[in-house]
Predict the structure of UPF0276 protein RJ45_21000.
Amino acid sequence: MVGVGLRSPHIHQILSEQPDIGWLEIHSENYFTVNSPARQQLRAAASHYPISCHGIGMSLGSADALDKQHLSQLKQLVEEINPIAVSDHLSWSSVDGQYFNDLLPLPYTEEALAHFCHKVELVQDFLGRQLLVENPSSYLSFNHSTIPEWEFLRAVQQRTGCGLLFDLNNIYVSSFNHGFDCQTYLDAIDPRTVKEIHLAGFTVKQFEQGEIWIDTHSKPVSEPVWQLYRQWVRQHFTALGGVPTLIEWDLDIPELGVLLGEADKAQQIIAQEASDGISAA
């Protein structure tokens, strides 16, 4: 099942034309106001499509306490929409209540792991449901980190029982920025814990100090990321069935047809690998 993000330039077209889309993802915080036009549009969309609530505001890795108002608004939204998934990020974005417009990397230490797991458990208890945690893209790392990211993420899942939102583009981007092997990351994750997959495009930036890749969600999915996705589907689809896949596109948003074309590519990969798996069996 392949979906696309529900973004403001496409809402009216999606509601009026009801194209063949497997599901829609929203950024939860955009729909917190109960009687807003956006919430009304979401209700209309939810009557036709499964919805996934993807958050960017929990700041789970921050030393700040969880924002009770934020959690209450999220719970109300979740109870009304009954989404297929609720997710947020392996990151932090606040200090002393001051929020930054970014998802910042954690130091991968035992102390940070215990703290992050405690936050995830609090959220799951409050919502009364499983949370999905997404692996980040990152552009710096901490010298005192002692745990590889893939082991840290795996430990979060094992300790809390959360699910994983596996972003293959983030793995590819971070593998270049930090010099690790994508295959090492993929091999470390139990596929049974992956409940959603994200695919997106990235931007290459050149600086005097060198090249960096940035997860901008502003381009089509790159061919290497398609290959990672094909590999993942080939290895795990037959055994586990389909995992919801999302095409993310948040900047320089194109016409809806472009997103649907990307979603169709993912659907074709699923169909091909499923067919090959059946034939092999």
Observations:
- The chain has one domain: 2-280.
- The chain has a mean pLDDT of 93.
